[in-house]
C-alpha cells in the first residue's frame, strides 16, 4: 500500500491534527475571547472526522505495514469517541465562563486527545498502541488540572500524572517483554507467538500489558485515581474522562486481547474475570457511602467497567458485540448524567456537588429530576430502560460460553449498585426540598439532556436493530 493510500486511511486523525494546530494558532493570535467560536469549530471538526469514517478510513484495512487498522471496529469506537468529545466541548464554555477560567486551549486539548484515542482504537502494533495512549494521556493530564487556581483541580492533575506515568511504565515493560520473547511488536506476530504455547516470559508480558491497560479503564485494582480525579477535575472534563477515554481504552483492551493475544485466551480471560468481579463489587459497595455526586459517578464508572469486562471475558464475537453496544449506551447515560450535574448550581451560579442538595428536586426542577432519574434507573439496569438491554447482552454472552456462574454473580452485584442509584431518586422525589438551584440558562444543555434521556428511555429500543448490526459488524472485524 502506498503512502497516499495509507494517509487516506488515517483521514480522521489528519483532519483533527491539522484542525487542532490551526485552532491553536487562532487562540494564540486572537486570545481567549475566541474560545466559544473555537469550541464550535472543534465540534465541527469532530463532525467532519466522523463523516470521514464513511470512506476508506472506516473499512480500508491495514495501513503503514500493519501499524494502523481502519476497520469497522475502529470506526464504531471512533464515532462514540467523537460524539462524547463533541458533547463535552459544547457544554464547557459556559461552565468555565461562570468560574472565570475561560481558556482557548481547552478545545485544542480535547481535539489532540481525540487524535490519540483514534490511534489507540486503530492500533495494529504495540508501538502504535503506546504512542496513541501517551498522546491521549498527555492532553488528559493538562485537562485535569485546567482550573489552575483551584487546589482540587491541581491535585487531580498531579495524581493523574503520577499514577498515569506509573501505569505507562508498567505497560511499556510488558511491551518490551512481549517483544523480547516473540520477536515482534505486531499484534499478528504476538498472536502467532502465543499460538504454540505461553512461555514464562510471554506470560509476564501479557500480565503487565493487561495491568497497564486496566489502569486506563480504571478497573480494580488499578482504580485508585478515579474518585479523586473525577471529583477534582472541572465537571466538563470529568464528563469527558468518564466517556471518551473510557471507550478508547476499553476498545483498545478488546483489540489487544482478541487480535494480539487470541492464542492465549485462557490466560487473559482469568485476568479479565478477576478485574470484572472486583470492579463490579467495589464499584457497587464503595459508592454507597458517598456524599459527593461526582465521586459517586466515579464509582459508578468503575462498576460499569466491570460489566463491560464481562462481555470481553466471553471471548466470542457475541461478547465483543455486547461490549460495543454497552459502550454506546454507557456514553449516553454518563454524558447525560454529567450534564445534569452541570445544572447543580446555587443562586450565585457556583457549582454544588453534594447529593443532599438534590433533596426535593422533583418539586423545584421537575424536568431535571425526571431526566436524572431516567439516567439513574438506566445505569442500574432496570427495565424497560436501555441500560437493562446492555447488561442483558453481556450476561447472555457469558451464558452462551458456559460462564453462567459469573453471570449470576454479575446480576447479584448489579443489585448492590442499584441501591445507590435508587437512593438518588429517593432523595429527589421523597425528601424535603433543599434550596433551589439556579434556573437553566442554556437551551443547548437542556436539549442534550433530553436527547440522552430519550435514547436510554424505552424509545431507545427502536435503535436496537441498527445498533446491534453495527456492533456485530465491529466485532467481526476482530475475528
TrEMBL record:
Domain of life: Bacteria
Protein species of origin: Edaphosphingomonas laterariae
Compartments in which it is found: Cell membrane; Endomembrane system; Membrane
Function: NDH-1 shuttles electrons from NADH, via FMN and iron-sulfur (Fe-S) centers, to quinones in the respiratory chain. The immediate electron acceptor for the enzyme in this species is believed to be ubiquinone. Couples the redox reaction to proton translocation (for every two electrons transferred, four hydrogen ions are translocated across the cytoplasmic membrane), and thus conserves the redox energy in a proton gradient.
GO cellular component: endomembrane system; plasma membrane
Transmembrane segments: 6-30, 37-55, 75-97, 104-121, 158-181, 203-225, 270-289, 296-314, 320-342, 368-390, 402-422, 448-475
GO biological process, one term: ATP synthesis coupled electron transport
Domain NADH:quinone oxidoreductase/Mrp antiporter transmembrane: 123-417
PANTHER family: NADH DEHYDROGENASE
Family in the record: Belongs to the complex I subunit 2 family.
Keywords associated with the record: Cell membrane, Membrane, NAD, Quinone, Translocase, Transmembrane, Transmembrane helix, Transport, Ubiquinone
This enzyme's EC code(s): 7.1.1.-
Protein name: NADH-quinone oxidoreductase subunit N
Principal subcellular localization: membrane
Membrane topology designation: Multi-pass membrane protein
Record text on subunit structure and interactions: NDH-1 is composed of 14 different subunits. Subunits NuoA, H, J, K, L, M, N constitute the membrane sector of the complex.
GO molecular function, one term: quinone binding
InterPro entries for this protein: NADH-Q_OxRdtase_suN/2, ND/Mrp_TM
Catalytically driven reaction(s): a quinone + NADH + 5 H(+)(in) = a quinol + NAD(+) + 4 H(+)(out)
Amino acid at each position: 500500500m502506498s503512502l497516499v493510500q495509507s494517509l487516506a486511511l488515517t483521514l480522521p486523525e489528519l483532519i483533527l491534527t491539522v484542525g487542532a494546530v490551526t485552532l491553536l494558532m487562532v487562540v494564540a493570535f486572537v486570545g481567549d475571547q475566541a474560545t466559544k467560536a473555537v469550541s464550535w469549530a472543534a465540534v465541527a471538526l469532530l463532525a467532519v472526522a466522523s463523516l470521514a469514517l464513511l470512506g476508506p478510513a472506516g473499512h480500508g484495512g491495514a495501513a503503514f505495514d500493519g501499524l494502523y487498522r481502519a476497520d469497522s471496529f475502529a470506526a464504531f469506537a471512533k464515532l462514540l469517541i467523537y460524539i462524547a468529545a463533541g458533547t463535552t466541548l459544547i457544554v464547557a464554555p459556559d461552565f468555565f465562563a461562570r468560574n472565570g477560567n475561560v481558556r482557548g486551549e481547552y478545545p485544542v486539548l480535547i481535539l489532540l486527545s481525540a487524535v490519540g484515542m483514534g490511534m489507540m482504537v486503530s492500533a495494529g502494533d504495540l508501538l502504535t498502541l503506546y504512542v496513541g495512549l501517551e498522546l491521549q494521556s498527555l492532553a488528559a493530564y493538562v485537562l485535569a488540572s485546567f482550573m489552575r487556581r483551584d487546589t482540587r483541580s491541581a491535585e487531580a492533575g498531579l495524581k493523574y500524572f503520577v499514577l498515569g506515568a506509573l501505569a505507562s511504565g508498567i505497560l511499556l515493560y510488558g511491551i518490551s517483554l512481549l517483544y523480547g520473547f516473540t520477536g515482534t511488536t505486531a499484534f499478528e506476530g504476538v498472536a502467532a507467538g502465543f499460538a504454540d504455547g505461553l512461555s514464562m516470559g510471554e506470560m509476564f508480558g501479557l500480565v503487565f500489558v493487561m495491568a497497564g491497560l486496566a489502569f486506563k479503564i480504571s478497573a480494580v485494582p488499578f482504580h485508585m485515581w478515579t474518585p479523586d480525579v473525577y471529583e477534582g477535575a472541572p465537571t466538563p472534563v470529568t464528563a469527558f474522562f468518564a466517556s471518551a477515554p473510557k471507550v478508547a481504552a476499553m476498545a483498545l483492551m478488546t483489540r489487544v486481547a482478541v487480535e494480539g493475544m487470541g492464542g492465549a485466551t485462557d490466560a487473559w480471560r482469568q485476568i479479565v474475570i478477576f478485574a470484572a468481579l472486583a470492579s463490579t463489587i467495589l464499584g457497587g459497595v464503595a459508592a454507597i457511602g458517598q456524599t459527593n455526586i461526582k465521586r459517586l459517578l466515579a464509582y459508578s464508572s468503575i462498576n460499569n467497567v466491570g460489566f463491560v469486562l464481562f462481555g470481553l471475558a466471553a471471548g466470542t464475537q457475541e461478547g465483543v458485540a455486547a461490549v460495543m453496544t454497552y459502550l454506546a449506551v454507557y456514553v449516553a447515560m454518563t454524558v447525560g448524567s454529567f450534564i445534569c450535574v452541570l445544572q447543580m448550581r446555587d443562586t450565585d451560579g457556583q457549582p454544588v456537588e453534594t447529593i443532599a442538595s438534590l433533596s426535593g428536586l422533583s418539586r423545584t426542577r421537575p424536568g431535571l429530576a425526571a431526566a436524572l432519574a431516567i439516567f439513574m434507573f438506566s445505569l442500574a439496569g432496570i427495565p424497560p430502560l436501555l441500560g437493562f438491554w446492555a447488561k442483558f447482552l453481556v450476561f447472555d454472552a457469558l451464558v452462551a460460553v458456559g460462564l453462567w456462574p459469573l453471570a449470576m454473580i454479575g446480576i447479584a452485584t448489579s443489585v448492590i449498585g442499584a441501591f445507590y442509584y435508587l437512593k438518588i431518586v429517593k432523595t429527589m422525589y421523597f425528601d424535603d426540598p433543599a434550596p433551589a438551584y439556579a434556573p437553566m440558562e442554556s437551551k443547548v444543555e437542556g436539549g442534550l439532556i433530553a436527547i440522552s434521556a430519550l435514547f436510554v428511555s424505552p424509545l431507545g429500543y427502536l435503535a436496537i436493530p441498527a445498533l446491534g448490526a453495527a456492533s456485530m459488524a465491529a466485532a467481526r472485524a476482530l475475528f
